[in-house]
Amino acid sequence: MKAPSTTAVVRIFRMLALAEAFSWAALLAGMYFKWIAKTTELGVEIAGPIHGALFIGYGLTALVLWRLQRWPFLVALFAGFSAVLPFATVLFERWAESRGYLTAAGAAPAGRQAAAEEERSVREPAGEETADV
Fold it and tell me: Is the model's pTM score more than 0.90?
């Protein structure tokens, strides 16, 4: 069986981040009707298992991206913690995208890539060629 590409995993991660946030909203609405309005438990009975499945899927996908994208431990920890707070998965996904943690396979995050390019330019000034001896 062929493993999915990093691009596919990133796409799945983004969809799960959004779906997990919507499931939080549904679960919170269900809890309102169950505990505050005291009218029905149906919202919790439906949204609870859906949210649970999306929570687990998001967490597993984050673990896969941690390995594929070689995220630092702290980034993976924030990804996991974001699933615990309502709607934080969307915020984490946007943050990770802006920092370059959701890029194509093999590409370094934007900050690290810029630092590597700067380091190369310091070692090899423009206009000078290095000869291999």
Answer: no
- CA dihedral sign, ordered 66, 71, 77, 81: negative
Which of the residue ranges 11-15, 28-32, 98-102, 108-112 would you say has the lowest mean pLDDT?
A: 108-112
pLDDT digits (tens, 9 = 90+) for 77-97: 999 999 999 999 999 999 999
- Reduce the secondary structure of 56-77 to three states and give it as a string: HHHHHHHHHHHHHCCCCHHHHH
With b meaning 16 or more CB within 10 Å and e meaning fewer, what string describes 30-67?
Answer: beeebeeeeeeeebbeebbeebeebbebbbebbebbbe
